[in-house]
Amino acid sequence: MNKVKGKHTAIITIIAMFAMSVSLNGQQFNTSFFGGITASQVDGDSYSGFNKLGLAAGFFVNRHIEYNIYWQAEIRYGTRGVYKGPSDNDPTLYRSGYHIVELPLSVHYLYEEKIMVEMGTSPELLVATLFWDENGLMDPSTYPENRRFGLNVFAGIGYWFNERIMAGFRYTNSAIPFRDPEEWNHPLYRGYFHNVFCLSMAYRFGP
């Protein structure tokens, strides 16, 4: 677990340094921090439902292109995975946690300075994976093999309450599978794909 905490510290340090760099050298950019909660599932496994709750946080910069269109770049850290709890008929538990760093790039349309619509794509890096069953944390040697690097696509909507604060909702889906299919997979499945909903709040700082 200390190894995971060390990775988390390094990620937070990178985000902070990037934020300070943009704030000092790029006053023409709009700069914001954000944080929120996620609900996720995996397409391709035998479980269904957005039952795995997680967190997302990061930093983004955006800049006006023309009319009401902006481009936006982010550094984003989040958790996703699967959760299947015990029930009266099935005492087993299954929980997975994927800790991922993303670098999203998107295009935004801002309507009347209030309503934001976004679409984009993001390369991503898997920094840690954890699996639990009803007996606790599982042995890492039993973990399935996942791809270290991935790509996703996303779309979302947001609302600026004022010049500083925005609430946003985003849906993210793996553009390529993060794990190859198993032998039992249905022929229509090409592997395992993350599905993630995220509800977040952003704060814009600077002049």
Can you write the helix and strand succession as a string? HEEEEEEEEEE
Number of discrete helical segments: 1
Which outline best applies? elongated
| Strand count | 10
Q: What's the overall average pLDDT, rounded?
A: 86
Query: Could you give the distance between the termini?
Result: 40 Å
Task: Quickly name the level 1 CATH class.
Answer: Mainly Beta
The proportion of residues in beta strands is over 45%
> Might you state the CATH topology name?
Porin
What is the helix content? Answer: 10-25%
Contiguous low-pLDDT stretches (5 residues minimum) are 1-5, 19-27
Question: Which CATH architecture would you pick?
Answer: Beta Barrel
Radius of gyration: 18 Å
The number of domains is 1
Structural category is mainly beta
Q: Let me know the largest β-sheet.
A: 10 strands, antiparallel
What's a concise summary of this model?
The chain has one helix and ten strands.
What would you say this structure looks like, in words?
By secondary structure, the protein is mostly beta strands. The chain has one domain: Porin. Helices cover 12% and strands 57% of the residues. The protein has one helix and ten strands. The protein has one helix spanning 2-25; strands at 30-43, 52-66, 69-84, 94-102, 105-111, 115-133, 136-137, 149-160, 165-174, 193-205. Strands 1, 2, 3, 4, 5, 6, 7, 8, 9 and 10 form a ten-stranded antiparallel beta sheet that branches. It is elongated and about 55 Å long. The termini are far apart. Residues 1-5 and 19-27 have low confidence and may be disordered.
